[in-house]
Predict the 3D structure of the following.
Amino acid sequence: MYRTHFVSEIGPELEGKEVEIAGWIFNVRDLGGKKFLLIRDKTGLGQAVLAKDSPSFSLANELSQESVVKVKGKVKADKRAPRGAEIHVEELELISKAKSPLPLDVTGKVKADLDTRLRERLLDLRREEMNAVIKIQSVAVKAFRETLYKKGFYEIFTPKLIATGTEGGAQLFTVIYFGKEAFLAQSPQLYKELMAGAVERVFEIAPAWRAEDSDTPYHLSEFVSMDVEMAFSDYNEVMHTLEDIISNILEKVRSECENELKALNYSLPEVRFPLKRITYSEALEILNGKGIDLKFGDDIGTPELRVLNEELKEDLYFVTDWPTLSRPFYTRAKNENSDLSESFDLIFRFLEIVSGSSRNYRREVLENALKARGLNPSSFEFFLRWFDYGMPPHAGFGMGLSRLMLMLTGLQNVKEIVPFPRDKKRLVP
Ligand code: AMO
């Protein structure tokens, strides 16, 4: 056993008790007769004191920053120590010595640029801010799951090696699959739809891949997609479900991650539900009024959303009813106007974090939608054939976890969020 306690559990109430802690050397202060060791574990910083007459005193000279140690000793209350107590060392074990100097300052005092941080990533992940990001993400993912389990959804796992693209062909990664061409899934789209055609309510949290050429703060070539699909449902009901999910995520992060938000010096946006909804056409009108030349059918990208956000002054809002042909083939057109679709994006200030829609569930409609986008229905036969056997109306969405995390942490770049991001220039670490 390496420890009896985490450092955050060491307090004055343990006065006189013998304990063992283990962690990384954050700092050693030499006060002549005594050495103060600041030791970090996943719960924070704790203090251990080495007296000059201790047999381990000389070993303290070897304790470079980030070396891994184990300390055994008695707790003594002291107001000057973190949480009002320190450990008077009886035994000190140097488990793993770190080289010095370190290529990155783990205390965070010396700032490093993003390239350096990503190169020296393990040290960067040990910083307090990155510990906070990792915990907040874990709490958010748990809240996402909890909300859906409560609503009777099943968690599913769909294949990631696939035969056709679904979200636009240009962004596919090709792999050689036993001598044949295959692709890495851009999203679980078609398989989550099929699963909803079997068990109605499903969700999946899994990686998705897109060969993103451009280097932006919002795109990765590998990202975690949080997907939901509901049978006997439409985009309105799906938007309500999404609101419940987001509301629970905000509530859980607010209540369980107070210290982490403080470490990031960030306050979560105060969001009121139901969220504001504006249609694509209304958004276009606002943007045209601001002198932005966008025509029906054009995408509303991040630069335009920045302008829209200045007008709407909402932290989180839906843009609904996008032009049918600007969305993938599985998106259902509106009954009353087939140029518009039952679709939505959820926008955080100026960034799309979720996109979803009602889906086509009639085979002939799907075939026409494929043809209208220059795609060949026969390549999708593995999917289309199931629409001959009773596919219910269904709807769903996909949310990018790292983009959601920008809203939950105040960070500005998804590459900061993902521990080991993949982009055009990064395949290691
Ligand atoms: P879409 O292509 O809009 O929709 O993707 C859904 C969400 O995934 C995130 N995302 C990304 N995050 C990081 N890097 C990327 N390269 C990247 N690409 C997308 C975004 C986006 O909102 N199948 C549909 C969803 C559905 O209708 O169910 C889809 O994939 O947050």
About this structure: Residues 167, 187, 189, 210, 212, 219-220, 223, 225, 227, 352-357, 396-400, 402-403, 414 surround aspartyl-adenosine-5'-monophosphate (CB under 6 Å).
